[in-house]
Amino acid sequence: MTETWDPFGTLRNALWIGGAQWAGKSTVARILALRHGITAYHYDYHDARGHNDRRIASGKPLPSSPDDMWVHPTPSDMAASTLAGFPARFEWVLDDLRALVSGRPILAEGWGLRPELVAPLIDSPRRMVVVVPTPEFREHQLRVLPRAGALPAEVSDPARAQRNRLERNRLVAEDAVRAARALGMRVIEVDGTRDAEAVADDVADHFAPFLSPLG
């Protein structure tokens, strides 16, 4: 169960962008931070650094090799493991956010910010939006951006590992969409026909009741 202790009211006033990897969440958050003078919190940055130290200290076992992470499991097993790990990681996010104090809402973005985890913290579903790429746009990214399909470690079967990772990500994204719709949260699909500024316009409009103009 999510701990809702909120000494500075930061969690209560936060805005949230969840969804899939490679949907442009970080870019949109950066644009909105610059436009509206708000602080953006990037989940991936913290999760790959300070949170990893906490993960190790917690004693949670890690895969013994990159193959055990990317090659041997099925995509469905990978997705289930990822989803099962999000609640503990979300508590570390909340610890980070509790330490931030701002006169404007904090905007938190990241694929680990799951609708069902955020829901107990917010007073309106408009405080969250889930952003996902369409399958066609994801395939386009893989064709034109080598890093979009790059693996984080060397494995014995790169082709299989990449297929596993992409399918895992698809399953995790679908889970986020299902949860968002069940909770009445908006889902934005990014198909590549509009640039990041235009997507940011949509997200800003969604968050408009909570974004006071600069002045």
From TrEMBL:
What SUPFAM superfamilies does its record include? P-loop containing nucleoside triphosphate hydrolases
- The name under which this protein is listed is Uncharacterized protein
Native organism is: Lentzea rhizosphaerae
